[in-house]
Structures are given as structure tokens and as C-alpha cells.
Design a protein that fits this description.
The chain is mainly α and 93 residues long. 60% of the residues lie in helices and 0% in strands. It has five helices and no strands.
Length: 93
Amino acid sequence: MMPDDLRTVDVHIPAGLADRLGGPGPGLDRRALEALAIAAYQAGELTAFELREILGIESRYELDRFLKVRGVYDPVTADDIRHDLEDLRAFRA
């Protein structure tokens, strides 16, 4: 469900670049929206829920697939790796 308080953002780029990126219209508009939203998500400015809301993606599973297809993965911290190693060692014991 889309919120009632939507904002429109105009992006001005040279026509030749727009043509190369998919031409004017909904395809290019969608690519721009996705790029902006993914960049904000990767920067920690959007949560996964907010990213789903912006892109109109209904489930977390669909979002995971959407991101994976685009080569976007959740960040892995040193603590994540340590916990995984601890789990592996406990499993092997």
C-alpha cells in the first residue's frame, strides 16, 4: 500500500544518457528509484521495511531475491563471523 503523502522527485540528465539507460518513461524512472533506494539502504539510511515500502515489495523474501539479483547482500561484521565460527565449532564437537 502506498502512503498518501508521496513526493515526486525530478532528475535531469542528458537525453543521450537517458536513452542509453532505458529511455524516458517508467523503466528509467523505476531504475532511478531502485538505485536511490538501494544506495540509501546500503548506507544504513533505510531499513529493510522502508526499502520494501518504497519499492512496493510485499515480503521480506521478495526483497531478499530483489537484492540478491542486483548483487546487494547484507553486510557481514566481524562479530557475525565469530558467531558463525562458534556455531560451527559447537556443531562439530
